[in-house]
Amino acid sequence: MSSTRQDAWTHDEDLLLAEIVLRHIREGGTQLQAFEEVGKQMNRTAAACGFRWNSYVRKQYKSGIELAKKQRKERKFKAVEKLEEVPLPKVSETVQEISETKGNDELTLSQVVSYLQNLLTAEKEASVLEEHNANLQQEKEKWEKSYKDLKLHFEIQKEEYENLKKEYNSLLSFFEKARQLAGK
Fold first, then answer.
1. Distance, CA of 165 to CA of 167 (rounded, Å)
2. What is the pLDDT of residue 67?
3. What are the tens digits of pLDDT across the range 111-139?
4. Sign of CA dihedral 68, 69, 75, 81
5. Where are the alpha helices (DSSP H) in 43-108?
6. Distance between CA 140 and CA 144 in Å, rounded?
7. How confident is residue 76, by pLDDT bands cut at 50, 70 and 90?
8. Count of CB atoms within 10 A of residue 107's CB?
9. Assuming Cys at both sites, which of 15, 49, 117, 140 could form a disulfide with 35, CB separation 3.0 to 4.6 Å?
10. Sign of CA dihedral 150, 155, 157, 158
11. pTM of the predicted model, to two decimals?
């Protein structure tokens, strides 16, 4: 059994911890995976690395964390764009059409397997895109509802403001008349 360190953390160790955790955030990994990686490199436990991150280091890298999250989001978006660019094989393509493009009357087993693999890949990619589209649709609906709620709240506040403004002007008018009467 290897012994784990229990000495104080150095500045270099804090930097390494931050670098690896930020890389994992950027690449879509988990912090636990980052803590395990750092722990192996420094001969510390993943728990010790997690504690150090959460109690001290994370507070110093708030902007770095936000940047890493933004980069992760951009990577996901680019991956989805790449999926959308992949030409999907036409499902209507028949075995006969495949054999005609190959210039022979008989198909080889490898051609059929290749076709089926392409079809399976296209189906998986279409499934991923459909799921992503459904998630985006749900998020859009959530934002639309939020917008409607905020717009309604704004209209109510605007009406209340207008009523208060009228009451204020009436009150000022009343005080002005009272001052004029008192001055006579």
1. 5
2. 92
3. 788 888 888 888 888 888 898 888 899 99
4. negative
5. 46-52, 58-60, 62-85, 95-102
6. 6
7. confident
8. 15
9. 49
10. positive
11. 0.45
